[in-house]
Design brief:
mainly alpha, three-stranded mixed beta sheet, 10 helices, 3 strands, 3% strand
């Protein structure tokens, strides 16, 4: 089913496989359950942080931004995925496809930028404790959060604006959702400019983000090895969930990049689907658990809420 995009207003997903009615509803139930857990866990943490004044600190404000991004990214995927699972014809209109591209790619950029800002916050708290409140004022916190979201939206808007005008020779996407590079690969015309811009944008974002995170953690480790036992314990308790989040998201981003850039036909279809969805499902699912269980203040508030209900 290959048509020119100038005559077609939809795309077809070829990665969906045929399954019986019972199996289809099983997949639907599992995805619904995951989405409910993600929404519940992230909304609960956002409410806890917003309602409790003791959590109105920079670290928790950045966490709140991270949890909002988890809701944003999962909402850009799950409702669409649920409709496709139940549908017998796996198609999507071009405008909705580009809207999903905007949502999922903005989520990815904002996730990485949030983690960079959080590593900078931990660096100031551990390496410059006496200057922390001066250097991380409420106005600076607001500015960093706004910059995180603005840069993410701006970068993805520019990337999609390069892909949208392309003349396409087909409309078959070998995935279960829309992404920018899958559209670029369908182009009839030369996509050198798109590929160069995409590589430059991805490289700059990744290299600058990873460099900043590595620098902050090198400084943190230096303080930990030369500091007291109390300093080391504080660093471990606050940095462990951040490092776990970074590793989780990095693995998912690597899987997605490998899916897009390399020939994965030798990999079973179900495995390819799992690897493609990992970065949009696992971080939103795991981050609330990581921070909810590891950060003492949030854990104490959770216990108080549970005990008050009993």
């Amino acid at each position: 089913m290959t048509v020119n995009s100038s005559q077609s207003s939809f795309f077809v997903f070829s990665a969906y496989f045929d399954c019986g009615g019972a199996l289809k509803y099983l997949y639907f139930t599992v995805v619904v359950f995951l989405y409910i857990v993600i929404v519940t866990a992230n909304v609960l943490l956002i409410v806890v942080i917003c309602v409790n004044r003791s959590l109105h600190e920079p670290m928790y404000m950045f966490l709140c931004s991270l949890f909002v991004n988890e809701l944003y990214g999962s909402t850009g995927l799950f409702p669409f995925l649920l409709l496709q699972i139940l549908s017998d014809v796996h198609t999507v209109s071009a405008p909705l496809c580009f809207l999903q591209i905007f949502c999922v790619h903005t989520y990815g950029t904002a996730e990485l930028t949030n983690l960079v800002v959080m590593s900078y916050d931990r660096y100031l708290a551990i390496c410059c404790p006496l200057q922390y409140h001066t250097r991380m004022s409420s106005s600076k916190v607001s500015m960093l959060i706004a910059l995180t979201w603005f840069s993410s939206f701006l970068g993805i808007t520019l990337l999609i604006s390069l892909s949208a005008p392309l003349q396409l020779c087909g409309n078959i996407i070998n995935k279960v959702y829309c992404d920018n590079y899958s559209i670029v690969k369908l182009a009839c015309s030369d996509t050198t400019v798109n590929n160069i811009c995409g590589l430059i944008s991805t490289s700059l974002t990744t290299i600058s983000s990873v460099s900043l995170i590595l620098y902050t953690y090198m400084r943190i480790l230096k303080v930990c090895f030369s500091g007291s036992k109390q300093t080391r314990q504080k660093a471990i308790s606050t940095c462990t969930p951040h490092l776990a989040s970074l590793l989780n998201f990095s693995c998912g981003a690597f899987f997605e990049t490998a899916q897009s850039r390399f020939n994965m036909k030798h990999v079973p279809n179900r495995v390819r689907i799992f690897l493609s969805l990992y970065w949009l499902i696992c971080p939103p699912l795991c981050n609330p658990l990581l921070y909810g269980l590891n950060l003492t203040k949030i854990r104490i508030i959770y216990k108080g809420l549970i005990l008050s209900k009993v």
